[in-house]
Structure prediction request, 426 residues.
Amino acid sequence: MSRKSIKANRKPQNPRKVNPSMRVINLSGYEIPKVRENARKEWVEYGDDNNYFYELIERYLGSPTNSRCINGIVDMIYGRGLNATDSTDKPDMFGKMQSLLKPTDIKRVVNDLKMLGQATIQVIYKAGKREITGLHHFPMETLRAEKAKDGKVQAYYYHPDWVNVKPTDKPKRIPSFRNGGKSERREIYCIKPYRAGFYYYSPVDYQGCLQYCSLEEEVSNYHINNIKNGLQPSLLLNFNNGIPTDEIQELIERKIYDKFSGSSNAGRFILAFNESTETQANIEPIHLPDAHAQYDFLAKESREKIMIGHGVVSPILLGIKDNTGFGNNAEELRTASILMDNIVIRPFQTLLIDAFKELLSFNGIFLDLYFTTLQPIEFTELENISTKVKREEETGEKLSSDKIEDIEVDVEVIEPTENKEEEELV
Prediction:
């Protein structure tokens, strides 16, 4: 048979119409926060829908491990408050510092810096802008940076809810520190660490573990919904009497959900009325092998990666029990506490202290500031401490002058030896 006859004998087949009965959910990949400059707006957007700060807050509220890590590290950074080693030598300056930097404002600034990656302070000036009369915490999630001019962010825009900004809304412009006019008595000072590739905003230090925070949140949501739904997802209900229309499918689904949803209805049987055994409804169990092991793995993996992202050396330091041995070995726990204090807590404290010193210097206040630690004195390395000031910074203890001799380095005095000839003569 020739090729032409084969083509002639072919009958075109109409495409088979398939009623879609399966839904596919596409899971989007994790992306870093986007920083976008909109030509029609004066401020710089942060994240999708200009809502990245609120996404960080949601990860804090939804993930128990992430919440505990942030709370614990914030408590360690703040410790027992801000102090100065030369407070007794400069009591006037120390009193002015305490009147400007209130403990409540400092704790909120520390919380924003850890949770959101940056923090802001509202600077209030006296008339004439020759003196600062107030330093108050300002919620970072309510601010957006103005487009830079000459390489500087000269202002921030305030709005209480950036997600629902209306075209008629006009966010308030607040100048940044030292960029306001003489008549503008309120400015914004932003505290943020340097991050390569970011200028307007600084990502959080635990950026790499945010996807695991979402995973931990989704695992918990799955278990909650699994308990609340009386119609277990492990049962498949088949109606073997043809495929009805979409409207009828939605009606049947809604009636079944209304009748069998809720944890109080779990375990009830399903009563089906059928015309014959050939059209009966079949319930087929779908077994997931080792389901408990899989969920247990996801929970442990999420917790471990979240703690790695936060730089937690030992979970027990934050009140998280773990079988790593740190809980039973006092020396290992002491080492973990010292290590975390140096590689995680101190960098935050240094960044904050440098910012506070810059603000206080405007009023002529110069103090050797430090945060009083929460670390037990037994965990503090005192062997190499040779000065009173250094000991106070490490322990937070004020020492009187009569105790200075106990911590100063003892210098061994070597007396000259006598000559052997003189000894023999004697």
About this structure: The two ends are 137 Å apart (CA to CA). Residues 18-28, 407-414, 420-426 have pLDDT under 50 and may be disordered. Residues 99 and 134 are 8 Å apart (CA to CA). Residues 330-361 form the longest helix (32 residues).
